[in-house]
Amino acid sequence: MLSTSGNSRVLSGMRPTGRLHLGHYHGVLKNWAQLQHEYECFFFIADWHALTTGYDDTAGIENNCWEMVIDWLAAGVNPGAATLFIQSQVIEHAELHLLLSMVTPLGWLERVPTFKEQQEKLADKDLQTYGFLGYPLLQSADILIYKAAHVPVGADQVPHVEITREIARRFNHIYGKEPGFEEKAEAAIKKLGKKNAKLYNDLRRRYTQDGDGEALATARALIEDQSGISLGDRERLLGFLEGGGKIILPEPHALLTPVSKMPGLDGQKMSKSYNNTIALREDAKDIETKIKRMPTDPARVRRTDVGNPDNCPVWEFHKIYSPDEVKNWVRQGCTTAGIGCLECKQPVIDAVKAEVGTFCERAKEFEGNRQLVKNIIAEGGERAREVARETMADVREAMQLSYW
Ligand code: TRP
Ligand code: SF4
Question: For residue 46, how far is its CA from the centre of ligand 1 (angstroms)?
Answer without folding.
Answer: 7
